[in-house]
Amino acid sequence: MNGRRLSRSENPVRTTTQARVRFADTDAAGIVHYARYLAYLETGRTEALRAAGLSSEMIATCSVHARLVQAFVRYRAPARFDDLLDVHAWVLDVSDSQFRFAYELHRPLDQVLIATGETVHAWTEPESSASGQSPAWLLAALHQLRDSVSEPSCIRP
C-alpha cells in the first residue's frame, strides 16, 4: 500500500454481522451470483465502522470518498437462497491515505467457509478525485478496529 505510516496489527478485532441470501442474489442454478459477494463485504465493512462508533453520516462519507481501488474474493463453497451467512470483517492495514479490510463469510448452520476476501480503499479529496490524507476521525476508527484486543462484536440485523 502506498502512503506513510503503514501499520498492521497481529490481533485485529473481527466484527461479525449476519446477512440472509435473498432470491435476487442467486443465479439460475440457485446459488449466489459471484458479483453479489461484494455487497456482503460492504455490509461487513459498514457494520465494522459502525461498531467503531462512526455515525451513518460518517459511513456514507466513507462510501463516497474512501473509494474501492481493489477487491479480491475467493469462492470456497456455494451459498444458496435463504442461507444465513456470518460476515466477519477486520482491518488488515492502515496508512494515511489507504486502508485494507479482510473478510470471511461462513454459513453458521454447518460452519462451512463460503468465501474469503479483501478490499483496499483510498481516500480521495472531496473537491477532486485526487488522493489525499484520510480524516482523523476515520483513521481513529480504523486504528481502533485494528488495535483493539477486546472480544469480537456480534452485530445482527
Concise description?
This protein has 3 helices and 7 strands; from the N terminus they run ββααββββαβ. It has 157 residues and is α+β, with helices and mostly antiparallel strands. It has one domain: Hotdog Thioesterase (Thiol Ester Dehydrase, Chain A), CATH 3.10.129.10.
Question: What sequence of helices (H) and strands (E) makes up the elements?
Answer: EEHHEEEEHE
Helix content: 10-25%
Overall 3D shape: globular
Q: Figure out the total of helices.
A: 3
Please report the distance between the alpha carbons of the first and last residues: 33 Å
How many distinct beta strands?
7
- Biggest β-sheet description: 7 strands, mixed
Per CATH, the class reads Alpha Beta
Our estimate of the beta-strand percent is 25-35%
Mean pLDDT reading: 86
Which structural class matches the secondary elements?
alpha+beta
| CATH homologous superfamily label | Hotdog Thioesterase
For the CA atoms, what is the radius of gyration? 16 Å
Count structural domains: 1
**Low-confidence parts:** 1-9, 149-157
CATH topology assignment: Thiol Ester Dehydrase, Chain A
| Architecture per CATH nomenclature, i.e. the level-2 architecture | Roll
Note down, in words, how this protein is organized.
This protein is about 25% helix and about 35% strand. Strands 1, 2, 3, 4, 5, 6 and 7 form a 7-stranded mixed sheet that branches. The protein is globular, with a radius of gyration of 16 Å. It has helices at about 35-50, 55-65, 135-145, and strands at about 5-10, 15-20, 65-75, 85-95, 100-105, 110-125, 155. The protein has 3 helices and 7 strands, in the order ββααββββαβ. A hairpin with a 4-residue loop joins strand 5 and strand 6. The model is unreliable at about 1-10 and about 150-155 (pLDDT under 50). The chain has a single domain, classed as Hotdog Thioesterase (Thiol Ester Dehydrase, Chain A). By secondary structure, it is α+β, with helices and mostly antiparallel strands. The longest helix is centred in the first third of the chain and has 15 residues, at about 35-50.
